[in-house]
Amino acid sequence: MKKTKETDLEAHWKILSDEIIKYLNLFGKRRFYYSWRPSFLFYFFYLYPFLKNFAEIEIVPGVSSLSAVASVIPTNLSIANEKIIILPANYADNLKKYGKDFDALILMKPHKNWQKILKLAENLKNYQSFYVKKATMLEEKIYTNLKEVPEEELDYFSIVIFKKRED
Amino acid sequence: MEAMVYFIGIGPGDPELLTLKAWKIIKNSQVIIYPGSLINPKMIDFF
Predict the structure, then answer these.
(1) pLDDT above 60 for A5
(2) CB atoms within 10 A of CB B47
(3) In A30-101, which residue ranges form alpha helices assigned H by DSSP?
(4) Contact A59, A87 (CB under 8 A)
(5) Would you say A40 and A66 are in contact if contact means Cβ atoms under 8 Å apart?
(6) Strands (E), chain B
(7) Which of B 1-47 lie inside 8 A of A, CB atoms?
(8) Which of A36, A56, A85, B36 is deepest in the core (most CB within 10 A)?
(9) What digits encode the pLDDT tens for the residues A104-140?
């Protein structure tokens, strides 16, 4: 399911919740598990309104992709009083503005706005940039220069980090 | 309500980063639903 202006996402969430309810009715009580991403960007909240009257619900947090990325780049994301901002890459237009106030800028799902990010990155000269694809997976790739990222490496499971250089 | 649904964050990709709590719940679940395009295929071995 791809999100477009024409896609009725609500209808898709309803279909998915109906499927879950079907299994709930089949198996009766306890132990039903729905696996998704860490709760950082949790799509669960789209499903919740459809399920809340049919089952007891518990969220079990996982290791976030942000923690994974932080563990594979050769610097820290934040130390002492440093400030971090996390943005969907759609908001890359505001990078220059945020650069004044934050020590680490993190862009989620950068693959859709890559050219825009490259252009705006030129305004962040005092930041070290990282592109991390599929952190902790076998396909993990880390680039320390955004201009060197080949188009075929742009991926849904990727994050861009700008970390302010130390004076 | 007797039915119980767990929404589980399974981590960034490395199956070994699944939490112990998640693993215990998965082992005792009767139905597992997951988005095929968003999961490391190696994770399926845990199911």
Answers:
(1) no
(2) 12
(3) 44-51, 65-72, 95-99
(4) no
(5) yes
(6) 4-9, 31-33
(7) 1-14, 17-19, 21-22, 25-26, 28-35, 38-40
(8) A36
(9) 999 998 998 999 999 888 888 889 999 999 999 889 9
For A37, the closest chain B residue by CA position comes to B9
Inter-chain contact B19–A58, Cβ cutoff 8 Å?
Answer: no
| A25: amino acid identity, one letter | N
Q: Report phi then psi at A86, rounded to 5.
A: -115, 125
Measured CA to CA, the distance from residue B6 to residue A64 in angstroms comes to: 17
**Pairwise CA distance, residues A122 & A151, whole Å:** 19
A80 phi and psi angles, rounded to 5 deg: 55, -120
**Predicted confidence (pLDDT) per residue in A28-45, tens digit:** 655 556 555 544 556 777
pLDDT tens track for A66-94: 999 999 999 999 989 999 999 888 887 77
Q: Average pLDDT of chain B?
A: 83
Q: Check CB contact under 8 Å for B34 and A51.
A: no
Nearest Cα to A35, choosing from B10, B30, B46? B10
User: Which pLDDT band, with edges at 50, 70 and 90, does B10 fall under?
Assistant: confident
Residues of B in contact with A67 (CB under 8 A): 12
What interface predicted TM-score (ipTM) does this complex get? 0.89
A3 burial class (0-12, 13-18, 19+ CB within 10 angstroms)?
Answer: exposed
What are chain A's domains?
A: 1-62 (no CATH), 65-164 (3.30.950.10)
Domain that holds residue B37: 1-47
